[in-house]
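Quick bug: Calcyphosin-like protein isoform X2 output formatted oddly.
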Amino acid sequence: MQRENGFTKEANLQNLAKRELANGLDKDPIYKLRLQCFSRGATGILGLSRTFRVMDDDGSKTLSAEEFKKGISDVGLDVSESEISDMFTRFDADGSGTINMTEFLDKLRPPMNEGRLSIIEKAFDKMDANDDGQITETDLMNLYSVKDHPKYLSGEMTKSEILREFLKNFEAGAPNPDGIVTKEEFINYYSTISASIDNDAYFDLVMRRAYNL
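Here's what came back:
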């Protein structure tokens, strides 16, 4: 039997998240929000982070209660007003009426060990040729490998089609797609892929093969 690859594992994680959301049990609001993001695959947490980034007009990386609520609503996540309020209050520790969106996304993201985070950062740094903290679509076109993608293996999609589809993932949830991927967005995307793969060595292999590390 052919070994399951990262793309199949992502689909399995989506299905598991949907089943857990439907089991009727009470859940911590942050955990529930994470499951909803998982149910959308690797684009879930990424979409929320991009929406928050667009709202952060002054670059302060802070959100008001209204912005926080609007961001979750705009992405279409099913969270009640009381759950949103509970999450916001937890992160507004000093009572200032704002929360640090990076801290919130760090908490929402599934935890990763140093080895996994390191290989994700290596992949990003390889593409960030000018070391400006972001990569462009051209960077990904030149470096992202599709040889393990099931639709490429089956002949359903060409390399160009798969790359275009992949690039759309990094624009998920962005009202104004800009063709730029920040390091935080890259990590947010791969944090969900990481959560779908139990074995550290296999995750490392997936990243190395995808980015020719």
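Actually, after a second look the formatting is fine. The mean pLDDT is 82. Closing.
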